[in-house]
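By convention, each integer encodes one residue's backbone shape. The lines below illustrate.
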Amino acid sequence: MCRSKGFTLVELVAVITVLAVLAAFSLPKLIDFSSSAKRVAAEELAATLSTASSSNLATFILREAYPATISQSAFPMNACGNARFLLATGLPTGYRIEAAGSGDGTVLHMATVQCDVVDESNTAIRASFTLHGINPSSS
């Protein structure tokens, strides 16, 4: 007698069925992870902008105090939208910056305003940061 090696059709169907069931249960978890990842990315971008704004303010203050020593200039900041200039590579694709709450996002010299980083693919994903105003001509 000769026995052939391999899987029967029933065994193959059973394995495919088990894999399909596992995929059906894991897919919602993967979708949930992508939403969490987008939220974390927006929060990280907001933290980076907050740090860059503080650094920009420190540069302005030091330059005012020590003009002969500090060669770098600060970026003028008078609105939330200008925060994109604080990033060396600009604002990443898929995000925008807007005023937090009901404000218009303008900020006076040496004042602060709350701004939001918004994920354009899901506007419910947003993270706030503080922008420091630097506009000496308005003071």
The beta strands are 95-99, 112-119, 126-132. The chain has a mean pLDDT of 90. Helices lie at 9-65.
